[in-house]
């Protein structure tokens, strides 16, 4: 059998009739439609920049997001998942909103919650991948496919928070920068503003998402659209009647801004790029570029590697066994350490006990000595007393004899 021939030896064969594998693309389409699609958007931007309004405008629906206050002590991420359907295509859309972003006095950590959220989604996917029983087809993939970064329409360029945050995010997610509330900035100012933003992004080495130009069918449109980034967008939940149609617009005393009018803003361009042309590319780049990078770093962190120090391939089993040996050695070392510590402690306690025994002994000896001394003194005193007693008795009897003698003499007289 020569089933695994080298590619250069592959023979081209002509089929003499219809076999049917030309239906493979259709099979793929059918399967994809059946499974439905998942798309996850992350909106990063200060409170009140029109994130929720833009999402409503983009998907032409009302997600009923409650406006968030400016008073939160820290940034929180809130993800909401919606099931959308257009003709027979189902889309599971998750919109993740940054609540309280840029509202704190100390904005140093504003991006941290965002980075943590991105990593957490990657980690969840990695854990599912590493399971023995995987169910990736059923798994709800929550990895963020695109981050819309809302820039404040100041006309002054980016804030430092914008640059720091985008720099932190650019290896983890596809970023499309957009100028929010673009109706508040004049036409000439807008061009300068866009140029300034691009300049600053480049100067700081921030990699934003580029619409792919390697596919011929979308090459031209993507090329021209890349030149319009950052898109200047306007969102609205209001509709006004224009002719016979109801259109999404913002009404001002001096006129009307039409959201879907390309002369008024880049909303249509954004929708075209985000939803109609490049959604699949964003999903793919998320998996092949950003997730891959995360996975690589994490596996290396866990101690896995493809090649050893001599550049020889290392199998999973080898790594596992090396880790196991290491682990056992570590355990052994720990055990030895504990044992040694135990011996030392016992010795310490022993000498402590000996010391106190000695002390007790000395105390006892002293007591014994004191006691003997007392006894001796007492004995002496007793002896003295006895002697005194004897002396007393002697003197008493002496006295008595002399008394009787004198008395007898007297009688004789
Ligand atoms: N001028 C202007 N105002 C907008 C635009 N989009 C939203 N707004 C208004 O800005 C306010 C905050 O919008 P919201 O979508 O809640 O902002 P979020 O906090 O970023 O979600 C609302 O009063 C919106 O009507 C826009 O494109 N231009
Ligand atoms: Mg909101």
TrEMBL record:
The keyword Oxidoreductase does not apply. InterPro entries: G_SEPTIN_dom (IPR030379), P-loop_NTPase (IPR027417), Septin (IPR016491). Keywords: Coiled coil, GTP-binding, Nucleotide-binding. It comes from the Eukaryota. Pfam families: Septin. Residues 35-301 form the Septin-type G domain. GO terms for molecular function: GTP binding. The keyword GTP-binding applies. Belongs to the TRAFAC class TrmE-Era-EngA-EngB-Septin-like GTPase superfamily. Septin GTPase family. This is Septin. It comes from Clunio marinus. The lineage of its organism: Eukaryota, Metazoa, Ecdysozoa, Arthropoda, Hexapoda. The gene is putative Septin-2.
């Amino acid at each position: 059998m020569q089933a695994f021939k080298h590619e250069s030896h592959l023979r081209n064969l002509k089929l003499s009739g219809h076999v049917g594998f030309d239906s493979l693309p259709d099979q793929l389409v059918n399967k994809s439609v059946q499974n439905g699609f998942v798309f996850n958007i992350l909106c990063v931007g200060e409170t009140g920049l029109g994130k929720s309004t833009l999402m409503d405008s983009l998907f032409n629906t009302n997600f009923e997001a409650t406006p968030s206050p400016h008073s939160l002590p820290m940034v929180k991420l809130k993800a909401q998942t919606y099931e959308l359907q257009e003709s027979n295509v189902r889309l599971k859309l998750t919109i993740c909103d940054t609540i309280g972003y840029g509202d704190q006095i100390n904005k140093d950590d504003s991006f941290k919650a965002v980075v943590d959220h991105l990593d957490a989604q990657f980690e969840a996917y990695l854990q599912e991948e590493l399971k023995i029983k995987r169910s990736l087809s059923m798994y709800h993939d929550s990895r963020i496919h695109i981050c819309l970064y809302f820039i404040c329409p100041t006309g002054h360029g980016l804030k430092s928070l914008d640059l720091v945050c985008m720099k932190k995010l650019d290896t983890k997610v596809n970023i499309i920068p957009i100028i929010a509330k673009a109706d508040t900035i004049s036409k000439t100012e807008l061009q300068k503003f866009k140029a300034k933003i691009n300049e600053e992004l480049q100067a700081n080495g921030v990699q934003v998402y580029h619409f792919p130009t390697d596919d011929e069918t979308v090459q031209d449109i993507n090329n021209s659209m890349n030149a319009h980034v950052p898109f200047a967008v306007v969102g609205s939940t209001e509709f006004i009647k224009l002719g016979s149609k109801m259109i999404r617009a913002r009404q001002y005393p001096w006129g009307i801004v039409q959201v879907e009018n390309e002369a008024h803003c880049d909303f249509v361009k954004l929708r075209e790029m985000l939803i109609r042309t490049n959604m699949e590319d964003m999903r793919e780049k998320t998996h092949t570029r950003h997730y891959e990078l995360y996975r690589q770093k994490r596996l290396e962190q866990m101690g896995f590697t493809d090649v050893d120090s001599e550049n020889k391939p290392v199998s999973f089993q080898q790594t596992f066994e090396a880790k196991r040996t290491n682990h056992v050695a570590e355990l052994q070392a720990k055990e030895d350490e504990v044992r040694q510590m135990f011996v030392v402690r016992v010795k310490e306690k022993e000498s402590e006990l000996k010391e106190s025994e000695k002390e007790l002994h000395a105390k006892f000896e002293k007591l014994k000595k004191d006691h003997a001394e007392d006894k001796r003194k007492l004995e002496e005193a007793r002896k003295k007393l006895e002697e005194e007693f004897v002396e007393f008795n002697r003197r008493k009897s002496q006295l008595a004899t002399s008394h009787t003698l004198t008395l007898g003499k007297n009688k004789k007289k």
